[in-house]
Amino acid sequence: MLIDKISRSERHDVTGAVGSLSSARRALKEEQPDILLVDLQLPDGSGIDLISEQTLRNPALPILVISIFGDEERVVNAIGAGAQGYLLKDDEEDTILDAVDCLLRGQSPISPSIAVHLIRRFRQLVPHRQEIHPLSDRELEVLQLATKGLSYRETAELMGVSINTVGTFTKRIYTKLAVSSRAEAIFEARQMGLMSDSFSEQRRNGT
Predict the structure, then answer these.
(1) Tens of pLDDT, residues 153-179
(2) Rounded Cα–Cα distance for residues 186 and 174 (Å)
(3) CATH 1.10.10.10 residue spans of the chain
(4) Lowest mean pLDDT across 3-7, 59-63, 123-127, 179-183
(5) Which end of the chain has fewer beta carbons closer than 10 Å to its terminal beta carbon, N or C?
(6) Dihedral of CA 66/59/73/19: which sign?
(7) What mean pLDDT do residues 129-146 have?
């Protein structure tokens, strides 16, 4: 059992161990531990409810989930409820003990297989750079000329296109870079490395 692993290590004192949601609630009213280890599947409810309650009651309390369940929904819900770490019960004994130490130091221990779910969810929530990049050669040329302070008309003449075409390219640039002005577009492009000297040299050389 998990409690036995921790007890025989002599690295930590176990102040209490219960097997249900209701028992945990009663115990936590009487004593506040330095760290709370929570299983998610309890006979009378979900450990996620306990995590939410204790996070509201004491935000500074480190909470570590140790469960047989490692699916993405439970992982994300537990972390969202306030858990600072998530391990699987079949992790090695030393891994679990080290995780407790890490949690007490303010770190967030997570099993590698659990981290995969968090990274996948993060990628779903955050827009990818690929969605707004790269600019086409012509769009980049418009932006490069914009850095020189050229007007739409001057840019059109140099590129051999109409002013309307330059305007169309500019709108596409704004959309791809998620900006609303020329200055913002230039700044964002430089932040993304599109306007670096090496990149410009490659364009001039046709590489």
Answers:
(1) 999 999 999 999 999 999 989 888 888
(2) 10
(3) 130-205
(4) 123-127
(5) C
(6) positive
(7) 77
Pick the CATH number of 2-125 from 3.30.420.40, 3.90.25.10, 1.20.120.450, 3.40.50.2300: 3.40.50.2300
The SS3 of residue 33 is coil
Q: What's the pTM value of the predicted model, to 2 decimals? A: 0.57
Which residue, among 125, 141, 205, 127, has the nearest Cα to 173 in the 3D structure? 141
Collapsing DSSP to helix, strand or coil, 195 comes out as coil
CA–chain centroid gap for 122, Å, is 4
For residues 129 and 43, give the distance between their C-alpha atoms in angstroms, rounded to a whole number: 45
Helical segments of the chain, H only:
2-7, 21-30, 47-57, 72-81, 93-104, 112-125, 137-147, 152-159, 163-177, 182-191, 197-205
Tokens of 195: 């306007």
Q: Looking at the predicted structure, is the pLDDT value of residue 18 above 80?
A: yes
Please state, in angstroms and rounded to a whole number, the distance separating the CA atoms of residues 64 and 46.
Answer: 14
Domain 130-205 part of CATH 1.10.10.10: yes
Q: pLDDT digit string (tens) for 28-43?
A: 998 888 899 999 999 9
Residue intervals of the chain classified under CATH 3.40.50.2300 are: 2-125
